Amino acid sequence: MLEEIRDEGAATGERYVLNMGPQHPSMHGVLRLRLELIGEEIQEAEAVIGYAHRAHEKMAENRTWPMFLPNTSRVDYLSGMIYNLAYCQAVEKMLEIEVPERAEYIRIIAGELNRISSHLLWLGTYVMDIGGLTPFLYAWDDREQVLNILERITGSRLTYSYGRFGGLTMDVDDVFIKQTQVFLERMKGRLVEYDKLVRQNVIFIKRSEGVGIIDAETCRRYGVTGPNLRAAGVAYDVRKDEPYGIYDRFDFEVPTLTTADSLARYDIRIREIEESLKIVGQALRDLPEGPIMPDKPKKKFKPAAGETYFAVEAARGHFGMYLVSDGSETPFKIKLRTPSFSNLAAMPEVLRKTMVADIIAIVGSIDIVLPEIDR
Amino acid sequence: MSGTAPGLDGLLLTSAAEDHGKSGFHHRHTCAPESLLAIARAFDAAGYFLEMMTAEDRRADLDKMRLVYTWNRFGPVDRHLLQCDLEVGASAPSVVAATAAADWMEREVYDMYGVTFDGHPDLKRILLPDDSDFHALLKDFGRMEDAEGASGNGHGEDA
Amino acid sequence: MPETVTQMVDSPALAILIGIAGVMGALTFNALFLVWLERKASAWIQRRMGPTEVGPFGVLQTIADMLKLLSKQLITPKHIDKPLYHIAPVLVFVPVVAATSLFPFDEHIALSNLDIGLVLVFAFGGLGIVGIFMAGWGSNNKYALLGAMRSVAQNISYEIPLILSALSVVLMVNTMGGPETNGMNLAQVAQMQHDKGYWFVLVQPVAALIYFIAALAETNRAPFDIPEAESELIAGFHTEYSGMRFALFFFAEYANMFIVAMVATVLFFGGWSGPVLPGPAWFFIKTYGIVFAMMWIRWTFPRLRFDQLMSFCWMILIPLSILNLLVTAFIARAV
Predict the structure, then answer these.
(1) Cα separation of A232 and C196, whole Å?
(2) Which of A22, A375, B100, C57 would bridge with A221, disulfide CB 3.0–4.6 Å?
(3) pLDDT score for B150
């Protein structure tokens, strides 16, 4: 901690360095913030990352294309389904594989359920970060329902490996449909409850309103995407702007707000949960019968040499995969463009001249998942 | 934030339209390292954002390090793939001056590939430990086949 | 008037021993009970079970925890300011014990019956801050220091509305009771509510509300638990304390809740006064009712930010409590 301290405050001893994390109760995994403070006001903030680096991109270059499947959901364990399916869809695009209708619909349902669970977890942890301990367990309870539903069809609760090139591992049954419908019904009432318990609370509003403003221009300069960007008034959602799978068949909205503060980010996520519920409802209604895998699934293949880019809207924003094949069974390179990496990159600028207590609210509100940043 | 088409005239070596439905890109460009910053400024001025930046270790086939940038905008989507081949061991101009997003991305490329960027405000490792003596995504580091026997670097997976 | 222990027992030394044993016993029991109650209440609010394994409804869980804390190694960090670090837990704990001995639990039972009881309670309450600051300073930890600084600023600020709101009651009691009553004497305040047949919360609702809010802040309870805001400062001023040293802070925190609730009981809710049940029963029912309300709030509300907390005190609570005092004085003069 005796690092060199810059600026005028150092001379009087006013300015000091505070290390927050990597082991800190609210640093969401293993983020470390190196803060230079005067009193409780932040002068400089530096995010130190890499504590959860597991070299997924290196692993990709050391195994065949299908062998990388289980890695994908471990990149972001809170929206693992979306990542897993994204990889399948990227490879399908590269190889031009047709996916059966039923599998497409189930992918939508599973992906949106996963998004809801991710947003619920964020809701709980964000309110906990600013001191409200109880909503966390309520959100956890709801999330548990999603995990139970997904566990039944995929066999895992967090790091799903549900997708296959061309389809899915397992089909869904009537019980799944029933369970999902019950969940949709349940969430309607629960969202009202969150509104009363959290959103209308004066202290909650005071802690979130006007805090951590990330305006549209800052978002663009740093490549911030997802709910954080939509809270700044930009209606950019990969599901709408660059539709993948069968998202263009569904009727849903991309909510936006313009205040760009923590409160707006909360509202956006709640409205996204509503939109996701809508999509799941429509997908359940239209779910066709049929196979969930192509007749002749590709098990061993050598994609033609070249580059492919595939983007999806993950729970935290634009998740892109840059696949490079050299014509062999092994990827030449897989680059994972994760949304949190760019979202966090904007933090040093946003945190400047805020209070220590606001750091928690701001870093909490942008919803980062460290393993996704560190990969 | 719909940007106008960036003014890239005279900055590119090659440029071609791509089938977005097939490859995911709308345009594919290549450029010389010297024009990287000017291109970044042109994209930035046109309202694009630096979506992704990475590198490829092309020493085996081209004897080059390849820098890869994708520029995009917040709808209507218009993804430009920009490839820039670099002599091995040469450093590239940093584009941080044009877009803040490049700060961490260039650090990651430096961390993983050892490519240095001139004009980067604080070029240091980002994901690997500060005292690492390797660049993890180079093709001659940590291959599975090296792990068998005593290949020496000790970072391969156990056989 | 209640008889004090000193009056009941011949020997003063014996009286002191009985007093200390009584207070310590009551405080220990109180802390154990409150920790259990907090766990059960939070579990109930959060749809959990809470402790269930040790004893019926987990009532013995806190005893097991206390034994664990007693038997734990005391970890002392390096580079601390040794005297401050070691004295701090004691200095936080002792005033709490002293303050507890001032309350009339019944018409007839009190450990001491002092004419300046109320002043002493607040004075002892103020003393605890010194211990907290010593803990934060002595720990050589930035989080502890930040927590301690916040704590000092918060406690000093909130003592003003706390005392001003209590003063409104004192003023009222003095006016209503004539020249020989003393509103600073806790027993007399309770006695007067008993005689009048109503609680002062009815005539001083604003003072009661201000007192309750300021008391939450004084005891560092949510939504004012900023000095030990765990999501920001880990554990604030007691980050570096472990084992029994930590237990003393913990103990003092719950005892403090108990004390401010007792003051509220005496000032606003008639103390031991109530029908059918004996005095001490009423006294504790009311006290624990107030404590429960404090817990309820903790598990419902998020936490204020530090600057919001301070501006709330200086911009709203203090002017309001001064106004309330002036209105009380005016009415007392007129009636």
Answers:
(1) 61
(2) B100
(3) 45
Cis preceding linkage at A348, omega within 30: no
A in contact with B (at least 3 C-beta pairs within 8 A):
yes
- The reply to whether B42 falls in a domain is yes
Residue B107 belongs to some domain of the structure: yes
What are chain A's domains? 2-48 (no CATH), 56-372 (1.10.645.10)
Tell me, yes or no, if B70 comes closer than 8 A to chain A by beta carbon.
yes
Partner B contacted by A216 (CB < 8 A): yes
- For C71-81, what is each residue's pLDDT tens digit? 888 888 888 88
Distance of CA A16 to the CA centre of its chain: 34
**Which carries the bigger pLDDT value, residue C75 or residue A126?**
A126
Strand pairing partners for A307? A324
Q: Which amino acid, C100?
A: T
Q: Could you tell me the pLDDT band of residue A5, with boundaries at 50, 70 and 90?
A: very low
pTM of the model: 0.83
- Report if residue B142 sits inside a domain: no
Residue B150 lies in a domain: no
Question: Taking CB atoms and an 8 Å cutoff, what residues of chain C touch A203?
Answer: 223, 301-304
Of A74, A43, A128, which Cα lies nearest the Cα of A372?
A74
pLDDT higher than threshold 50 for residue C58: yes
pLDDT over 90 (residue C311):
no
Q: Is B60 on the interface with A (CB under 8 A)?
A: no
Residues paired with B54 in a beta bridge? B68
Residue of B nearest to A48 (CA): B126
Q: State the ipTM, two decimals.
A: 0.82
pLDDT tens track of chain B, all 159 residues?
334 467 777 778 888 888 888 888 888 888 888 888 888 888 888 888 998 999 998 888 888 889 999 998 887 888 889 898 888 888 889 998 888 888 899 999 999 998 888 888 888 888 888 888 888 888 888 766 655 554 444 444 443
Structural domain of residue B62, as residue ranges?
14-137
| Token reading at A175 | 């019980």
Question: What pLDDT was estimated at residue B17?
Answer: 83
Phi first, then psi: what are they for C116, rounded to 5°? -115, 30
A308:B23 CB<8 A: yes
- Mean pLDDT, chain A, rounded, equals 86
What chains are in contact with C, requiring at least 3 Cβ pairs below 8 Å? A
| Domain ranges for chain C | 76-334
In whole angstroms, what is the distance from residue B83 CA to residue A306 CA?
A: 13
| Per-residue model confidence (pLDDT) at position C106 | 63
* Number of domains chain B is built from: 1
